[in-house]
Amino acid sequence: METGLFDKNGTPINVGDRTRLVLEDGEVREFEVCFKTVQRTTIKTLRGFEPDSVDVSITGIFFCWKGNDLLPCVDENGVSDVEKMEVIKRMSGREAASRLFN
C-alpha cells in the first residue's frame, strides 16, 4: 500500500517497508511502516474549545519501533523525519496486502 511519503532519496515509502533514521546524536533507529488506528491521549484542542485536551483515535501511517507507534517529528527547520529516513527493505505488494487484511 502506497503511503504518499518519500524517503531522503526520493524512494516511495510503502506500508510494510523498513526504514532507517539516523538521529543527530548518531543513534540509528529502524522502523516498520504500518497503517493502523492508534489511541492517543492528551491532545490539545483549539483555543477556546472545551475541554482543553481530549483523547483521540488516529488512523494513518505510523512508524513502529520497539513497541511504539510513532508519528514523524518535524525539526526546527520544518523538515520531517520522513525526509531524513531511508528505505532499507521493500515489502512486496502481496506481503503488504496480506498484513493489512489478515
What is the topological layout?
Elements: E1 2-6, E2 12-14, E3 18-22, E4 28-44, E5 53-65, E6 68-70, E7 86-89, H1 93-101
Antiparallel strand pairs: 1-2, 3-4, 3-7, 4-5, 5-6
Structural summary, described in words:
- This protein is mostly beta strands.
- It has 1 helix and 7 strands, in the order βββββββα.
- It has one helix spanning 93-101, and strands spanning 2-6, 12-14, 18-22, 28-44, 53-65, 68-70, 86-89.
- The strands form 2 sheets. Strands 6-5-4-3-7 form a 5-stranded antiparallel beta sheet, with no helix packed on it. A two-stranded antiparallel ribbon has the order 1-2.
- The protein is globular, with a radius of gyration of 15 Å.
Q: Roughly what percent helix?
A: under 10%
Shape: globular
Oligomer status: single chain
Please report the number of helical segments: 1
Please mark out the parts with pLDDT under 50 across 5 or more consecutive residues, or reply none: none
Considering the chains and any ligands shown, give keywords for the structure.
about 100 residues, 7 strands, about 50% strand
Brief overview:
The protein is mostly beta strands and 102 residues long. Helix content is 9%, strand content 49%.
